[in-house]
Amino acid sequence: MRLGWLWLILEAVAAYFYMIKFGFGSLLLECIITAIFGFVLAFRFGLAGLFNRVMFYGVKDIFSSLGYGIAGVLLIIPGLISDFAGVIILLLSLIIGQSAPQDRGFNPRNGFYSQSPKNPDDEGEIIDVEIIEESRGIK
User: What are phi and psi of 38, to 5 degrees?
Assistant: First the structure.
């Protein structure tokens, strides 16, 4: 409970000094832009990527997606300190994501991984099957 009040007081002090330097409109615009970015980050890349990566990949991928989700939620919360914490967590998640192997079939169009072969030229083993129909009748 005390930690919540402390956070609220720190957010108010940070907002006060920000408004003195840049104005109220700038603060309002910052809150709106970071909230929109937070929604996109949390629900497009964070949570959706987490559920997609859990089934196929390792710990780094999971923590990277979880970091995107947490950073998105912190960016949604109005306030400068929570936005700063969200950006820090986002940067850490990007660093963790970059250290993960990149040959896992990531599709940048939809932000998901797929089970594609590691080598794009290798399409896997092809099995050729010929179907022979037998005519079955009563003799």
Answer: -65, -40
d(CA 51, CA 73): 17
Cα pseudo-dihedral 57, 59, 65, 69, rounded to 10: 140
Q: How far apart are CA 109 and CA 10, in angstroms?
A: 39
Residue type, 49: G
Among 50-59, 65-74, 107-116, the minimum mean pLDDT is found in 107-116
- The H-or-E segment that residue 112 falls in is strand 112-113
Residue 49 phi/psi, 5-degree rounding, is -65, -35
SS3 of residue 106 by DSSP: strand
The reported pTM is 0.64
Q: What ranges do the domains of the chain cover?
A: 2-113
> Rounded distance, CA 14 to CA 124, Å?
57
What is the spatial distance between Cα 95 and Cα 77, in angstroms, rounded to a whole number?
23
